[in-house]
Give the backbone structure.
Amino acid sequence: MSIILLFASKAAGQNMLTIDSLKTIVNNADVEEKVAIYNQLGWQYRKLHPDSSIYFLNKSRLLIDESGSLKLLPECYNFLGVAYLYKGDYLFSYDYHEQAKELAFQQRDSLQYAHALNSLGRLYEGTAAYDKAIEYYDEALSYFQKLDDPVGLAYIYSSLATFYQSQNNFARAEEMSKQGLELRIQEELWAGVAFSYLELAKIYNDWGKPDKAFTTLQEAQKYSQQVTANMVLRAEVNTEIASLYRQKSEFNKAKEMMDEAKNIAEGMSNQNLFMKVYLELGRLNYDLKQYDAAIGYNNKVVLAAEKSAFMKELREGYLNLSKNYEQKGDIATAYENFKKYNEIEKRFLNTEKARLAQQHESRIALETRARENELLRIEQQKNEELIEEQTLRNYALLGIAALMFGLLVMFMIYSFRRKRANMLLTQQKNKLADINLEKDTLMNILAHDLKAPFNRIYGLCDLAKIDKGQEEQYIKMMQDMSSSGLSLIKNILEVSKLETGEALSNINSVDLNLLFRTKIENYTDDAKAKSIALKSDLNLDSNFVTNQLFLERIIDNLISNAIKYSSKDSEVEVKAFKNSKALNITVTDHGPGFTEEDKKNLYQKFKPLSAKPTAGEASNGLGLSLVKTLVDKLHGTISLSSEVGKGSTFSVEIPELQA
């Protein structure tokens, strides 16, 4: 166990020697040591391979579940939160850090509680919720100070340094970064020391103090050279120093730094580091007027960036290529590369707009999730109080039974009647709770699904004012969002209207052939938008007596659901035929299918199912409930044939009614 703790305290960033050592000792470790090792493997992989990090941390969770020892579970949850943050999933990250915080609080694990607070602060800072972020940072700092934990204090000082740097409070950022640096020096965390100097240099650079940035980077270099196992950090420091040498026209020193960084980068699979190093090599050779060499480096950056989808590096690579070819006099090639750069630049502007909107939505989502968690905690506390009250009541009843043995028969009759009354009362409470839950769920859906379109419409209005010339596109987007909100309201009103007992009226003769072909034509564009082939097999050569409105809603919901949950480049098939007694309809898709648990809740309102729309379409859990209600109204039947991963087929049979 001491080996594991050593790795935990000394590791900084992804350290391949640490990873290899952990993998070597895991096979001979006991269960608790294996959990600790898998946690550390998850931590080591978090930056470059978050999926691998999640894989090892889930192995840790399985071992914890099997052993029943929850001691290391808060750490596992904290590391999962970090892995999902690097993966770009804020809500999953938030959930795991919240679970870590709650479990650590229950276990009185102040260290993991403080780490969870620090990570939650970073999440809120990432969504520009700065007031909330500083609350979490301050609370985390107080816990680390009480624990007198130097590693944790170094982390929180680093978080605070980044926070104040983002607020342009460089003096405060410098103070925080230096405090973290001092702690890492005291603890001989040399990789952390090098990181702190690198962090401090970036603060000085943003502060407009290039000389101090250069001096600080030299310190980072000195310590990074001591950490032979963490070559990534060493190469990053060398690259930053070389950049400053290049800007000062000290090209020989810059080349010396970059030669070492290049050797390190070429011996690793770290694409982020590779592109950072080769971009700087390209800049250096450009300044040296060695344009062919610069072109070679930038071509490698472009190739790597295209494979890895690093758009920022790809953009700079094309721009650098354009400049180099221009210097060589090859104007045509320079122009071609500049066009590619300009195309990506336009995408960056659009992406920045989307990022700002997403940042706003992420902040709202985090705040909503926090409120939901608080309500759950309050409800849990109420339940615990009720259980405690019931337990005390039971003890009292047992005491009375022991003291009043002579009145046992009367007590049993009394107890039986009381139990029956409680059972009836419980049943009534459950009914009321179900009604209240349905009401709350309806309000939540309205609040969530209608708030989102209104928020986006409001944002698009602002964009339309700023981005002249794109008004038609924004209006189209606003129309689509409005349509989504109206569809939700329409579904809710229809379900409510049907459940209040609307009579089966408006029965008339329906031209089935015309009706089905019109419906299929209406949904053809929706299917094409997702590259889905909408096919039909119709055998409808006569009219049919039924309620046309009800029948149309059934067809609409079945076809739209099939398209919504089908993957790209798949098929949706609609079949319909009429025999002497009934109309038979089947709609088949090749989507994710339904689990056995889904089938239990299939036609219930607002029940969440495992399958999700494949293109981010809205889903409010009312469609299938409405179909079932309408089929019942028409005295028909509906059935489902589905396997997970193999799609679904809904079959509906509706008898002909009397005109």
